[in-house]
Amino acid sequence: MALNPTRAPFSGLRRKLVLAFDVGTTYSGISYSVLDPDRVPEIKGVTKFPAQDYISGASKIPTVIYYDRNGKVRAVGAETLRDGIQEQAEDEDWVKAEWFKLHLRSRLGPGAGSEITNKIPPLPPGKTVVQVFADFLVYLLSCASKYIHETHANGVALWNSVQGQIEFVLSHPNGWEGTQQSQMREAAVLAKLVVDTPAGNARLTFVTEGEASLHFAIQNGLPDGAMENGEGIVIIDAGGGTIDVSSYSRNMSGGATMSFEEISAPQCHFYGSVFVNDNARNFLKSYLANSPFVEDIDHIIRCFDKNTKPRFRNSNEPQYIKFGSIRDNDATVNVRSGQLKLEGRDLALFFKPSIDCVVQAVREQCQTAHKSISHVIFVGGFSASDYLLEQVTKGLSQTGLNVFRPESHVNKAVSDGAASFYLDHFVRSRISKVTYGHRMEPYYCADLADHRGRVSTAYTGPSGGLLVRNGFDVILPKNTSIPETKEFRRPYQFCYATAQEIMRIRDVPVVCYRGIVEVPKWTDIDPHNYTEICTIQVDLSQIPAIKTAKINGSGMYFAVNYEVIIIFGLTELKAQVAWLDRNNVEKRRSSFFQERGENIICS
Q1: What is the pTM of this model?
Q2: Which domains does the chain have, with CATH numbers?
Q3: Between β-strands 556-569 and 487-496, what pairing exists: parallel, antiparallel or unpaired?
Q4: Over the stretch 135-158, which tens digit does the pLDDT of each residue have?
C-alpha cells in the first residue's frame, strides 16, 4: 500500500517534458512525464521499442551496442535481439559493447577493485566509455521520441513543442561520484541531449538509484504502516551490476508536506545479477573442461540467465539448463537431450556472495542508522529472483525486519523513481558518506601529543609562526545528517612575506577521506584514502590582503583570508570558496566542475 502523496498541479507557464533514463548494466528503461500548466503530472513509461514492435508492455531493453569494424553503430538495445543479428555480427566481425556502464566505476570503494575490473568486458577498440554511453543515450532519446510520436494524441506537435528544452534525469549507482557524473554529463552533451552551456547543463539532473527507488516505493509499493510513524526502511535496489543500499525515514514534523530524510550512509556493492552469471561461468569452465560443450559456454550462460536463474528456488533439487537439441548428449557431465543437469546446491553457491552482501549491508544500515529500521524493500530486476528474496529474508530472520517486494514492476523502479524525484522531491536531507575537508598546515601546539611527535618537520611560515606539515581540517564529517540547504564552512588563509609574493591565481583543493580513522587530522596517515575531488581556482587580486604583525614580532606579513564552503544540493555536492571584498561584501567562486556544469555527486 502506497503512502498516496498528493502531487500538485504543474505551476509552470509553458509545457515541459521530463525524460528519465535508467541506463542499467544489463537492461535499461525510460520513464517520462508531460508537464502541462495547471495539470497534475503523471509518470508514464516507454513500453514499446523499435525492433520490438510486436511486443507491448516491454519496459526494458538490453544495454547492448554492436559496432562494426569501422566503429559505426550497427545495432542497439532491442535491435540486438532481432533474429539473425548474432550470426550477422559474427559474419561481419561486429564488436559487442555490454556492461559498459561499469567502466565508469574507477577507483571506487569495497568490492570495486581489480577483481571486478577483470570481469567487465572490454570496450570496443578505439571507443571510450563516454562515447559508448553517448551512443546509447542517442538511442534512448530516439526511442522516447518515437514512442511519444506514436502513442500520444498530436504526438508530433507535442514533441516539437518541447524539443530543445527537455529536462533529463539520469540515474546512477549510489557509489558513483564526481568523476562518473562528469563523464555522464560529457556523454549527454556528446549525445546532444543538452548543450554545454549553463542553461543546457541546468536541464540535466542526476539521482542515485537508491533515492530513485525510494520515490518509486513511496508511490507504488510500501507495505501497510511502513514509515507512518517515522521508523526507517532500507531500500535494496538489486540490479544487473550493482546492489544499492539506502535507508530513509519519514520526517513527521513536516506538516502537510511529505518529506523524507536519509538516515544512514548509502552503499553500493558489485554483487548484481551479472556476477551470479560470472560465478556460473567459472564453475562451468571447470565442470565442462573435458567435454566438447565447453565451447558452448557463452550460449549455455545465456540460457542460464534467461531461464534457469530466474526460476531457481530450491537448492535441494536438481536444476537444468536447456541449451541444445536432443542430439546433444554427454553422460560424463550430465548432458542429456540438450539439457545440462546441475545440483541445486551448486546453483546456490552462485547466488551466495550476493545474498551475503545484502544481508551484511542491511545489518550495517541498521547499526549506523540515526533511527530504528523496521522494513526492507526490494526493487530492481534482480529482486524478481524468489531465491534471492527467500534467502535474504532467512538471513535477516533474527532481526525482526519485515522484508517486502512490491508487486508492481520492480524492474522499472529506477526510471519511474527518477521521474518522481524530479516531480516530487521527497528527500530533504542526506547523509555524508565520507569526510570532506581541506589540506592545511596548522600552527604548532606543544600541548598536543601529535604535534610534539611532528616537531622535527615543523617550519617557520611567513606569519612567523611554527607550522606543522600534512594537516587535514574537517569541514563536513562522515555520517552527518545534512539538510540540503545547509552550508558547512571553515575559515583559512594564505600567508605571504611580502605583497609582491602574492600569487594572482591560487588553487584551493577540496579533499575527501574514505578511510576508517574516526577524526582524520594528517594526510600522511592512511594517505591512500585521501582523494582530491575538485579544485577551485581563485583570483587573489580580488581579495584584500591584510598587513599583519608577525607572531614572533619580527616584522609584518600579508594574510589573504577565505572560507571553503560545502553544500548539499539535491543529490549533488557543491564546493565553493568565499571571501569578503574591499567593500566587505561576500563573494564566491565555485569549483571548476561547477563552472562546467559538472557538479560533484553527493556521496
Answers
A1: 0.86
A2: 16-209 (3.30.420), 214-269+367-416 (3.30.420.40), 273-349 (no CATH), 435-601 (2.60.34)
A3: antiparallel
A4: 999 999 999 999 999 999 899 999
